[in-house]
Amino acid sequence: MNIDRRRLLGLTGLAFAGTIFEQTLHPLKVKAAGKTNPRGTARNCIYIALNGAISQADCWDFKQTRYTPTDFDMQQIKPDLALSKTLFPNYAEWGPKVSLVRSMKASELVHFTGQYHLQTGRALNVAVGKEIPAFGTVIAAELDSQRKNSDTFPVYMSLSLAKNRVGAIGSGFFPAKFTGVDIDTSVVFDVFGGANGGSTDVLERRFEALKLLSEASPTGMGNKETEYKAYYNTAFQILDDKRWWNLFNVDEKTRKEYGSELGLNCMLAKNILATNAGTRFIYISDNTQWDHHAYIFDHSRPSNHYTQCNNFDHAFTRLLHDLESTPGHAPGKTLLDETMVVVTSEFGRVPYMNNVAGRDHYDQTFTSLFIGGGVKPGRIVGKTDADASKCIDPGWDHQEHPYLDNAVATMYSALGIDWGKSVQNTPSGRAYNYLQTAPIGGSEFLSGDAIDTLFV
Amino acid sequence: MRTAVCLGFASLLTLAQTPPQTPPAQNPDRFEKAHEGILSTAPDKGKQASQLTEAVAAATPLKASNQPIVRKNLIDEQIFSRMEKNKIPHAPLASDEEFVRRAYLDATGALPSPDAVRAFLADRDPSRRDKLVDALVGSDEFANEWAWYWGDLFGTNDTAGTGSTFHFYTKQWLKVDRPYNEVFADIVTAFAKDHSAVPATGFYSGANYNATRALSPTDPDNYYLSNRLDFIDEVSVNVSRIFLGLNIDCISCHNGAGHLNSINLYLSHKKRAEFHQNAAFFGKMRVIDGWSDRVLNIDASNAIYDDSGPGYHTAEDGPFATEAETRFPRAPHNYDPAFLLTGEGPQPGENPRHALGRIVPTHIQFARAAVNLVWSRLMVVGFVEPYDGFDLDRLDPKNPPPAPWTIQPTNPELLDALARDFQASNFSIQHVIKTIMKSSAYQLSTHFDGEWKDAYIPYYARRFARVMTGPEAADAIAAATNRPYQFALLGQPVSKVLELAGPSGVGGRGRSSEGLVVSALLQAFFQSNRQTPATLSNQASSIQAMLMMVSPVVGNRVAGDKGSRVAALLESGKSDADILDEVFLASLARRPTDGEVKACQHLLAKDRKTGLEDIQWALLNSPEFLLNH
């Protein structure tokens, strides 16, 4: 959609002032190592973080131990994959198709550093922490050149992320325009729906007033481009786009079908991608109670492993179904063909139970789930031992285990981004490597590779 | 258009031309790989501030003052004589309108009320600016604003249930202007059998939390949950970062040599052993968490912090030695305390933490760090950026470092002079703040006649604009529209974000119906959540703009109902001129220009209620509102 230039605040002749102006502010010096082979199989990526940490031995890396409840009603999908029908009633719909990496390792054991790792794709190091961007920002910067004239939505959007344990990590030293726009699903339908009548009339009228006022000042905001106005113009372009408001024009009945906040976020994610207005990476933050240090299998508790998995199953099944039934960008492709969906937590849970019938945090093994966007269906990568306490086979060509850092590299690969790049001119002077193999916040070396075996 | 976008991006990410290099020698230390390609040039906060100021100065239609510039104190002597010597042009003094809003925001984080602005503008006393500074600094609001500033540094939060206590402790020493060296000594020697009884121990709860393993303890006598030395190391890093402006996190794991050679000349010569010796001042410190029989878990709200530990003995930190989690394994050794900067240790029989409290403030770096913290908040560009990036080998122009290193502070002589002045004032933080705010250098305008050059930045040749902090912005919206918030702190109602103990006090749904949306606003203005390092602030962003345009925080307040300023003015029967005066004064601390009055009357004529609401909205969304200029 073409914004009439005259409606923007005092800019002369440059429609995407934000982009052009930014180049004089922050030219980033990027060095490409040239050793990676990004697959480029996906247009989009949806990243679902189950914050609090799902217990892998009780779902995707199922292990029958003396702690396992008797009512799981396990279904053997394949020799190496069994899923609980009690936990995932719709297991048959997605069980055979999902790919799993069971050999993940974590570098932290507490939520806020773990959730920091989920957002930045690296362990926290306070020495340079202030400048580290969310990895969604890196994606936004990398894919910026692919934007169409009609694109108004930001490349990187997040849903319910600001409510997680560390808030929404910003753009760090990257230009602020690549900060993700976070939507709080619990209030957004009121902000953009209901009271505002789902229309842009009020906003447009007010923006006119703003423009009128700004031109009335004696020195005039006229000819001088301002960084500040560029941000306002970018923001206005999003808010003035009827497609933005349509995202939240969802009737009560449909919202009820999707159920919980996670379900609504999955619905929004599909709608955002289907609108094809510029967003390519969506971070969904599930902030419900996964952190079952106590009474994890107790049905009488309002939140337990059963309720959590049922909720996830409900949302995830609908998401896959929606993506599969929406046409993609290329002819003959579905949105699922073109979108890599990743589901993960910050770490796993221990193979034993503690004294309050719960499971604590565990960093030695956990599982991430991948589907769509070029991922080969049903790939099971990595193997753990009888109670998922130790990884016995990392499942790829390296002795190091895959970390979230490598999962991020896998998303980069799918999106066609070279994860071997590094940015030289950071404020601290320490180069920012897209994938750091000697993490200054971690305790082990990492492989410099994406989990490429998922694609073959 | 398409080409322009692509070109824009291509320039944005310039692929560096790397000349052919000989392959590096085989190096068994794989950590070298992590530091490949480090350059010493980096974009700096000064440039950022300069560009933002250039961009918005034109948007503020204020005539700067044409009063001659008087050199009021040592700051002016330094700043203006240096500019004179090097023939650097500078901005004129700020007008009274510019000054009153700036002074209120900087000192108290709050906008001046329309009456306060009127009173100040009408005051013809030539010392009215000094009088205002004296009135603002030391007030309750002053304590709120600066307690948040230090709170962000300390990471004061509610994790261990001590957030509010430590926040009040911080507010108190700021309000009574307790000597900063005493505050330091108080904090580093804090000792309690139940830490909630001694507020100063709140300094330690963050480090305690981070050092504790995330395992449910199986019984109350399970002491294997945290590595004591990890806790001590983190405390030592925090002390150094905040009170000495030195980030010694790097050398807590390895020697500076081979790692910091291009980053920090001083620290590149330091060894990990010296870090351990510095941390050893806390070597006898123990943390023993409480236990709750009710939840069968650690009760972090009452821990013992005492000095009965064995010392910084890395061979065996018994009797409950646990594997280190946040630091690399330490070579076995018993470390005696030695101050990193001088090697000085405790006197015979002296409690080592007391020794640290005594020794550190005698070093000028303690004063420099404090002065720099205050200067960088008030003058927007610090002497040294970031606040914990001091390189002690690059501070003395009479003893410059070897090329290509340069002198680090923007004005090293002034930094040292202010540091000594701070020491002489008995470490009075309020004295530093007042000295700065009363100087003509602080009172320059953002408007600069002629062509601005980046080379002028370190001269402070103009006032730099800064984006309001999250709490400042949120409170400004409420104040301008006269619709306060309804938060609660320890059961008491509070109406401003700055009256809370920290960002978590805004809370989610449960605490206030606006909690979530105010939280989102704070985040958009880069308010740190105090658990992970704050991102670089003083940045504008599209998210700020989006939220300002459509957030209910703004939308509900510009509406002409529920006792808002717009509602009251519509009902008042006042003339258009008086109404416009009031809304402009409330939002921008100035009266509207003739051109603005005309534009507004055009809007009011269409529909009075909608018109005034839209005007209020437009004022809140103008750069002049959200910037402290």
Structural write-up:
The complex is a heterodimer of chains A (456) and B (629). Residues 1-6, 10-25 and 218-225 of chain A have low confidence and may be disordered. Chain A has helices spanning 17-25, 91-94, 111-120, 135-143, 185-192, 201-216, 227-239, 242-247, 252-258, 261-275, 305-324, 335-338, 404-415, and strands spanning 28-31, 44-50, 74-78, 81-84, 99-104, 156-159, 181-183, 281-286, 339-344, 348-349, 361-362, 366-371, 380-381, 383-384, 391-393, 422-423, 432-433. Chain A has a single domain, classed as Alkaline Phosphatase, subunit A (3-Layer(aba) Sandwich). The radius of gyration of chain A is 23 Å and the shape is globular. By secondary structure, chain A is an alpha/beta fold. In chain A, helix 1 packs antiparallel against helix 7 (227-239) and helix 10 runs parallel beside helix 11 (305-324). In chain A, the strands form 5 sheets. Chain A has an 8-stranded mixed beta sheet with strand order 7-6-8-2-9-12-5-13, sandwiched between helices. Helix content of chain A is 29%, strand content 14%. Chain A is built from 13 helices and 17 strands. Chain B has helices spanning 2-12, 31-34, 45-57, 74-85, 96-108, 114-122, 128-136, 140-154, 163-175, 180-188, 205-211, 228-244, 265-268, 272-279, 352-359, 364-378, 412-424, 429-438, 470-481, 515-524, 542-550, 552-558, 565-572, 576-588, 594-606, 608-620, 623-626, and strands at residues 13-15, 286-292, 297-306, 312-313, 334-335, 466-467, 487-489, 492-494, 627-628. In chain B, the strands form 4 sheets. In chain B, strands 2-3 form a two-stranded antiparallel ribbon. A two-stranded antiparallel sheet of chain B has the order 4-5. Chain B has a two-stranded antiparallel ribbon with strand order 6-9. In chain B, a hairpin with a 4-residue loop joins strand 2 and strand 3. In chain B, helix 4 packs antiparallel against helix 17 (412-424), helix 10 (180-188) runs antiparallel to helix 15 (352-359) and helix 16 (364-378) crosses helix 18. Chain B starts with a helix and ends with a strand. The model of chain B is unreliable at 1-43 (pLDDT under 50). Chains A and B meet through helix 1, strand 1, helix 3, helix 5 and helix 6 of A and helix 1, strand 1, helix 2, helix 3 and helix 20 of B.
